[in-house]
Amino acid sequence: MTRPLSGTDATPFADLPAALVEEVLGQTAGVAERLLRSFSQIRDDRESLRKQLVASGLVISESSLGYPPLPTTCAADGSYAIERLLTTDLAAAAAVAVEGLTPPSEKRHWDLPRHKAFVAPEPHTEDTATVLRAVMLGEELRLATSAPHDLVMIDGTLTLPIIYFNQALNKAPDAAGLHCAKEILEHCGSYLEAYLTLLRSERSDKQYIALPKYSTRREVGTEVGWEASYDDRGMLTLLLNPGELTKPRPLEQPRDREGHITWHLNTGRLPTDVRRRASELADEIVSALGAVRVFYYKPQDWLPALRVEVSDAIASNTHRLATVVQGLKHQTATPSMLEPYPIYLADRTVKALARALPAFRQVTTQRISEQYAGAIGEVFFAMHGYRSEAGR
Fold first, then answer.
1. Three-state SS for 85?
2. Which CA distances in Å does 16 have to 21, 30, 199, 298?
3. Residues 350, 54: contact at Cβ < 8 Å?
4. Are 251 and 292 contacting, i.e. CB atoms less than 8 angstroms apart?
5. Pairing of strands 151-154, 207-210
6. CB count, 10 Å around CB of 230?
7. What is the pLDDT of residues 138-160, one digit of tens each?
8. CB neighbour list of residue 37: distance below 8 Å, 6 or more residues apart
9. Computed from CA positions of residues 193, 196, 201, 202, in that sequence, does the dihedral angle turn out positive or negative?
10. 69/321 Cα distance (integer angstroms)
11. What is the pTM of this model?
12. Is residue 208 a contact partner of residue 150, using CB atoms and an 8 Å limit?
């Protein structure tokens, strides 16, 4: 969906020296030439690459899976933002769950998106972003597992939570002054339980899937024997016909030099009352990550191939896999969106948090000013924003 440009989007070069703009524009000619050669090479080799892919036996048609009833769907996403102020930081995180297009026969309906928000003043420390994004992701996972829908989508990869959680668990015990550190230490158990629920997807009426837009893993390319420079999603966007998908394959696992899988959750520094249960969950999560499967699906000709990560419980069950495929196809009904509808809507919703944070800061400043006994100028100096940091 195209939006009119406004503000700095409409004048991207306004604050740049003219000579710098000319130099960068001059270098783009070389970039375009190199990319053109690459695109042309792939186009020339497309037919042979397609034959190679089909001969490998990895490509199947959605029709071979059958056509189960359309599932109800929703998507969960999250974002965080930090306003760096003179005397403190204003930290905010939000997670939302948004319902997809409702099947014609479905009577149930979510009236409003579900959400969870966290806002707190934090002392100046470099660990705030690391811990805050783990809180964001934990709440996102809890929303996903509480959704009553048949197909629940996560915007991102199934491996991202273990990375974010491990980083936060390493930092939070030493950051007792952070409100977000207290939040993750308090809710760590429920965050890990929600994560494990997604990874296992044991209930046959609940299909949890992850849809990363970007990934460096090359499960298909490695198996077929493509060049290392060929990206799986980019290549399969060109090679798959609408309605085709690849057979689920094991997710590439990170390994050390000895070949051992390196997933890790440091639960050793958690409070004693939660450490034992968290350690048990950590072991189960690492084990469940070994059973994650990946497939690519091209539902429509106007869409890039979707990278879909699921548990082996879904990938090995034809009916459950067909439910995922039919749900994705139903949620990609318009060329104006290059991703499933609920993922698009959840993404648009959470991205608004970073844009809205300065407004929240202004409201906070006004409320402080109304009750502050000293000079008002001191309040405005203290609450002056120097820069913002945001992420998802």
1. strand
2. 7, 21, 47, 41
3. no
4. yes
5. parallel
6. 17
7. 999 999 999 999 999 999 899 99
8. none
9. negative
10. 12
11. 0.84
12. no
